[in-house]
Amino acid sequence: MTYDLWYWDGIPGRGEFVRLALEAGGIPYRECARQPGADEGALVADLSSARKHPPFAPPYLVAGKMTLAQTANILLFLGEKHGLAPDSLEGRLWVNQLQLTIADVVAEAHDTHHPISASEYYEDQKVEAARRARCFREERMPKFLGYFERVLEGPQAWLAGGKRWTYVDLSLFHLVDGLLYAFPKRMATLAVHYPKVMALHARVAALAELQPYFESGRRLPFGEGIFRQYRELDAA
């Protein structure tokens, strides 16, 4: 089966967590909003189309007659269906728990530049953003990174503790990549305190399964979306 992945074109965003799993797993898919002739209107039209279980927002995955939305939910499905998660129910729920924790960080990272409203410009909420970003840098980033560092305690190379990566390792890689882009000064200070997290980031970056994707030019650069670089929001 070839899946249809719907997400806004031009930004990696939450869709990138799903893309990484599809690419690393060698799973056929179409990036529908990036097909020739498609535009933002095509996504809006599809999102509004009648479905038994309609998604609230992208990303969503069309798998035959099923439509699956919410990043963690999509990855839970792909993990079990394509061997990107542990075999046991306990293991699958564990990586889903980790993925939901990553979703929490993603939401907080987004709110550093849009703390009041996602529909208003950053320039209209800069004072509030500066305060929110300071809290995120000083309190929340160490707390979240410290949690994943503890999960990686011991000889294990991957978050689920097995001999092979799971989708949540790919997601942590993308999260760290986003934080390195949005908060380079802060991450330069924090990285030395979380060597296992940074080692996992490097390990995923070197995965043979992902090199064709990384080298293809299809991986979208950071800029707009969740992880944005505003120098006034970053500090060591």
Automatic annotation (TrEMBL):
One Gene Ontology term of the molecular function aspect: glutathione transferase activity
Signal peptide from the UniProt entry: none
InterPro entries found in the cross-reference section: Glutathione-S-Trfase_C-like (IPR010987), Glutathione-S-Trfase_C_sf (IPR036282), Glutathione_S-Trfase_N (IPR004045), GST_C (IPR004046), GST_superfamily (IPR050213), Thioredoxin-like_sf (IPR036249)
Biological process terms in GO annotation: glutathione metabolic process
Residue span(s) of domain GST N-terminal: 1-86
Pfam family, one: GST_C_3
Protein name: Glutathione S-transferase
Annotated ranges, domain GST C-terminal: 88-233
Taxonomic lineage from the root: Bacteria, Pseudomonadati, Pseudomonadota, Betaproteobacteria, Burkholderiales
Positions of transmembrane segments: none
SUPFAM superfamilies: GST C-terminal domain-like, Thioredoxin-like
Protein's organism: Achromobacter insolitus
PROSITE patterns attached to this UniProt entry: GST_CTER, GST_NTER
